[in-house]
Design brief:
The complex is a heterodimer.
Chain A: E1 8-12, H1 16-22, H2 27-34, E2 38-42, E3 49-53, H3 55-59, H4 68-72, E4 78-81, H5 84-99, E5 105-109, E6 112-116, H6 121-124, H7 127-140, E7 146-150, H8 153-162, E8 166-168, H9 174-178, H10 190-198, H11 204-208, H12 212-231, E9 247-257, H13 260-280, E10 283-294, E11 298-299, E12 308-309, E13 313-324, H14 327-340, E14 347-358, H15 374-388, E15 401-404, E16 413-416, E17 437-451, E18 454-460, E19 463-478, E20 487-498, E21 501-510, E22 515-522
Parallel strand pairs in A: 2-4, 7-8
Antiparallel strand pairs in A: 1-6, 1-7, 2-3, 5-6, 9-14, 10-13, 10-14, 11-12, 15-16, 17-18, 17-22, 18-19, 19-20, 20-21, 21-22
Chain B: E1 5-8, H1 21-30, E2 35-41, H2 47-54, E3 60-70, E4 77-84, H3 87-103, H4 114-119, E5 124-127, H5 134-157, E6 163-167, H6 173-189, E7 193-195, H7 207-218, H8 222-225, H9 240-246, H10 251-263, H11 286-301, H12 307-322, H13 326-341, E8 347-349, H14 356-360, E9 389-394, H15 397-410, E10 415-423, H16 426-436, H17 441-450, H18 463-469, H19 477-489, E11 493-505, E12 516-518, E13 525-530, H20 531-536, E14 541-547, H21 548-564, H22 578-585, H23 598-607, H24 612-621, H25 624-628, H26 632-639, H27 653-656, H28 666-677, H29 681-690, H30 697-713, H31 718-731, H32 738-757, H33 759-768, H34 777-786, E15 790-792, E16 804-808, E17 811-815, H35 826-838, H36 844-850, H37 856-864, H38 881-888, H39 916-927, H40 940-945, H41 951-954, E18 962-973, E19 982-988, E20 991-997, H42 999-1004, H43 1006-1011, E21 1014-1024, E22 1027-1037, E23 1048-1050
Parallel strand pairs in B: 1-2, 2-3, 5-6, 6-7, 9-14, 10-13, 15-17, 18-23, 20-22
Antiparallel strand pairs in B: 3-4, 4-5, 8-9, 10-11, 11-14, 12-13, 16-17, 18-19, 18-21, 19-20, 21-22
Helix pairs in contact in B: 1-2, 5-6, 7-16, 16-17, 16-19, 21-32, 21-33, 22-32, 23-24, 24-32, 28-29, 28-31, 30-31, 32-33, 33-34, 37-38
The chains are: A alpha+beta, B alpha/beta.
Amino acid sequence: MGLTQMLFVCIVVPYFSVQASLRCEPEQKRIVWSSRPVAIFDGPESLPRVVACNEQAQLQGVAVGSTKTQAGQCTGILLRKRDPKQEEATQTALVDSALAFSPRIESTAQGIVTLDVEGTERIFGPPQKLTRALAEHTARIGLDVSVSAAANPDTALLAAKGFGGTTVIPAGSEATFLAHLPIDVLPLTPAQTEILDSWGIRRFKDLALLPPVPLVERLGQSGLHLQRLARGEISRTLVPVDPPLQFVETLELEDSVADLESLAFVLNRLLEQISLRLLSRSLATDELRLKLDLEVFEDRELGTRPVKRSQQTFERTLRLPVSIQDTKVLLKLLQLDLVQHGPGGAVKAVTLEARPARQRHTQGGLFAALAPEPERLEVTLARIRGVVGDTDSQGRGRVGAAEVLNSNRPDDFRMNAFVAHDLKDTPGQSTRPSVVMSMFRPHLAARVRCESGRPVHVSFAEVNSPVICAAGPWMTSGNWWKKDEEWRREEWDVALQLSDGVGLYRIFRELRQNTWFVEGLYD
Amino acid sequence: MQYAELHARSAFSFLEGASVPEALAYACFEKQMPAMALLDRNGLYGSPRFHFAAKPNKISAHVGAEVSVGDTLTAKSSYYPLLVRDRAGYSNLCRLITKTKLRAPKNQTSAATLDELEEHADGLVCLTGDEDGPLAAALRTGGISQARQLLERLITIFPKGDLYVELQRHFRPKQEARNHAAIELAREFRLPLLATNGVLYAGADERRVLDALTCLKHKCTLDEAGRLLQVNASRHIRSGREMARIFRDLPEAIVNTAELSSRLEFVLESLGYEFPHYPVPPGETEISYLRAQVDKGARGRYQPVTDRVRRQLERELRLIEKLKLAGYFLIVWDIVQFCRENHILVQGRGSAANSAVCYSLSITAVDPIAMDLLFERFLSEERGEWPDIDLDLPSGDERERVIQYVYQRYGERGAAMTANVITFRSKLAAREMGKVLGFKPDALGRLSEVASSWEWRGPEDNFDNYFRKAGFDLNHSRIACFLELCKRVIDLPRHLGQHSGGMVICQGSLDSVVPLEPASMPNRVVVQWDKDDCADLGIVKVDLLGLGMMAALRESIDLIRTHYKEEVDLAHLPADQPDVYDAIRKADTVGTFQIESRAQMASLPRNNPQRFYDLVVQVALIRPGPIVGQMTNPYLKRRMGKEKIIYPHPSLVPVLERTLGVPLFQEQLLRMAMICANFTGGEAEELRRALGHKRSEQRMKQIETKLRAGMTQNRILPDAQDKIVQFVSSFALYGFPESHSASFALLAYASAFLKVRYLAAFTCALLNNQPMGFYSPSTLVKDAQRHGLKVRTVDVGSSDWNCTLEGDQDFLSLRLGLRYVRGLRQSAAEALVAARRERPFVSISDIAARVPQLGQSDLRMLATIGALNSIATDSGARLHRRDALWQVQKYGTRVPPMLEGVIEQDTPSPLKRMELEERLVADFHGTGITVGPHPMAYRRQQLREKGIVSARELKQLWHNQPAVVAGAVITRQRPGTAKGLIFLTLEDETGHANIIVMPDVYRGNPLVVLRERFVCVQGLVQNQDGIVHLKAERIMPLNVSAADVASHDFH
């Protein structure tokens, strides 16, 4: 068995989702749980379903697709919610482990990594040793894997999937080694599975022995490909992992910075670095993530009072309506945000991450009305936001473009990001005169006296006046299917005698609480 | 101030109203509303129910509809509320709706034109409508000037007294602005104002239901619906006082409602319906012609025609003449004649079998005189309603031919099918309300799966439990909403379907009696009312029902003629044949009509039928009525001589003698009332109806009082009175008419006769008319095989689409047809048969080339089940299934042009033969049937070693002996009358074993009981009177085969 022929090693993590879920547990616990039935569930909160489970769970009748309730009936089962982040992190950890053994790594699929190990014998020893070392190494990151070495990546993969532990397949013996593997280890389509099943093809050797030409006549080139896989004859090149597209810059400060001006100086440096890197890849950013490590002050007092620690990190995320690459604009936006949301402590380290996005390549229409540049508009909006605040008492944005929602609820709107459009004349705009009402936000609490169900006296803020006349009631109610958002209102339009004339107001009573408010003033 | 609500919609506006008419009527009663008009959208769907709910509460039920009329100015349509003033108006409204409905395919809306409205305006009153009405539409699109134009046009259509400007106040500013404009216009045109509340639901709470239905209509969720939903909950029924308060500034709008209500004189009872006259030869009247036909028929039926027969016929004919029903009988006779001339089997069932006239006219096949059946059950003077004749026809094409004959004979607007209102049931409610609340598809699927429809409703079978089982949290507010909505929508109409066979026929045009609309089947129209509404309003219907067994009998007779060279006439089958009754007594009745179910089989040996009347009793015995009324067991005990025959009163001996003192039939009940309490025939029938499905406590009390009074008059002692009252009240609801039972018993006897004498033909016909009956085709085949029939596999060289008989009279075998090949289309199969008739196939390549309709999946399926094995290879050797599978994989795909027309010879494949188990799995997967040994037969030796007995051996064991039996589960039942017990039937190569599963055993192994195909049951033998059951103590899954053996599950 010569090393020169051993080129590829494949690592497969059986029951990947289950292992990913248990990986970060303390070792003792993980070992105990691994021997128990474990199922991972996902889906809507109202009806979660099993998306993966280990062998022990399968033996007790749990299958992918069972509901959580059904799986829960299995004795001693551990049920866990699927966490895609955990799975992503596990895959990254798997890739990292493999990188310790070879620079050419392919992240073949979730839970599968293939390594090109040509020329590593002098470092890691013969393939048997290498595969064992890999298994041990991955065991340290909490994964129980199958590792297989072969002269081509696909044989290594099939062997790792089909056999447990570590396997080394000498070059030239692929077909013999793979012969007894069940056919479902091959990457079959449902149609191929059905055909091969009807033919009684159950193991690799059954497929390997079929005459190739009639096979092509029946299953096409894909059939031949499968047969060659079963014989261990396929050779392909790896698709190595690309270095991740990350634009993160971190700076630890020698002396912590407490004022925004000094911090802006640091931010500018980081932004310039990031902008350069973005520029080199013809990219811009549509989201900035700022993480500030703050100086920790321990508030220790003598006596019995416990230790109180101030917050250690401060994070802000700036989502931009357009992709921007201009350092000045980005800095200005960061500054304006920090003015409004100060970190609350001295900064000792800054991490800035930009999410890459395509650059903007648009040009305004020749005849379009003039609109401010999006970058400048965003800065202006940020300034306004700094003055008026982000959201109102009902959690709605204060700055942006208002959109009236399709709802019966009075004054139901949301604020969208302000995006300049072509301001062409839109046909069908109403030219009818209409009454305009200035809304009080928040609504003004009022005291209303009624007689025979009609308001006769209203007082709110500075106003305390009899009702001259009233129109109504206008009744609205809705969202009855949402406990927290249901509303029921009785509205009146009232004319009040004010010191400087007559004022027309919209008042309403929230029927659930039986409280009166002034909603607006008719202009 | 009197106020009448003259604009209301019910749930019969299908998703545009939220309360059933009865709920609206009840709300009117509560609010002391003297009158209400139900104006459903484009239909009178809910009017009969509203009429019958309002009448006893002394509420005037006005009739009308919101009719969609297109506006020529805006090309949009709006809903015109039209109220019926008189009968002419009613006819006009029906015709207008029919015209628009029949113009568009089913479920597509079509609007009338203003000209059509004008044409049909006589007798109608028009309102200007709500926000969907014409005035609002005009104001919206063209302001006051367009509204003015509209009113000018409407005044020309409806004279001023018949046009009202409608005002509604739902506390909305826009509506109020519209009202101002409407009032201004009304003053200008001097039109009267009319206040309505535009009712869409009975109580304010039901606004939620309407919101949910609105979402269903617009296919969106509540969260997405936005302004489609109701603004508030004010469109419910308001009392006159409330309405007067709301319209206190416009009192005349309220006063006008009472004034208009008084002018609407039409009530639904005066429909103007007339049954068509039968065209009789010159010089004849309908009755004279009927007499002649009855006389002629009676001479054939009764040989000789005795005095008793003559008296009965005369009595019936006199009543028919008095009730002017001769035309009706002639029309039904005419349909039967058509069937006879076209060799279509037909047999009347239901209460018509009580009539000697029907028997003489060959409408029914049971002699009511010989069987002493009660004529009053069919027809009575007092009842004042039309008789009900149901005709059983072979299901499928032949029934369709008869339906089309009726259409042709009475014209498109002269005959129609009755409707079938599809209502929300638990599964549909759960799915639809889940959709509305935005649940994800998989959650919805799971929900409707869990909303179990087992027949038995245990205490735990309710919505709360369905959802808990599905893993939903009942404390979640959205789930709570869901539950509430589900409960509320249950029983609300969802859409209109078509009744399977009810036809209404009318003299003149049916469309002036009830609106018609297109059915989903081509060439069919359907009336807007269901059969009960039609019956309640005195519209005669003839039920043309499809019966699978009739089709099977018809086909059996043809096969017997061809293959046995014998002629069988169902009307003259040799009666009381001992071999047939032997088989019935032994419960060897798989595949027969009505007496094949497991419960029937279990009672057959006890009832021990010897003659036809015993079969009549047998059919009626296993019914919810006798079971719930606890009549079945006493009867069987008396039949076996284990219980003394006693009668509640000596006067009842003649009535109950035939059924050993136990009342089993509705007729007996009627006679009991007549004899004991001096009821007339009509009163007795009235009693039956009063105790029927819609029974009320009050009516029950009245009837009991009347019964007791009669009995006291006849000096019946209180004890006997109690017993009789108990019989009457517990039994009336479910009792089975004797005449009906007799009709069914005829078919039961005929099917048993054919099974015993002509097994091959009967089995073949049964297999060609599936699905029907209690058992799957696999069970039918296995049963026939046990009786010695040779069944051959599907073979492309011999099989037709249908199953066929092969061989000669001495040894017939059954060849399975291509219809049993899963997924094979009939057109492809017929193309294959046609190609084979030209010349036999020489290879698989030949089949693929000559029958391009066969896709690759078809060829693969044929190969899998061995249907291609008979095609010889080059060397002359037979192919095996895998050889064929190997060959077919080459074909069925596009052939390169160069190879077109090249027929290759089949060659053996490199694949191994299928093993036994593989063949079994393939047979069941591909056809649902195996003609080889039963899967259990292969394991018999191993089972025996484990002490597991066969189904045949089980029958030899003693009562209470422990035993273990195993088999394929072929039926699962949880009958409503069995208090949660589950019955399984296991099949093995020796026959069937009956298992009883008590609720606690079921709860211990629910999945094994419900899902496993093969089970092993340990328990105690229940051997009583030769009936053997195994009462399960343990049920275990059994690993026999992966074959997908079908079970017929009644749950």
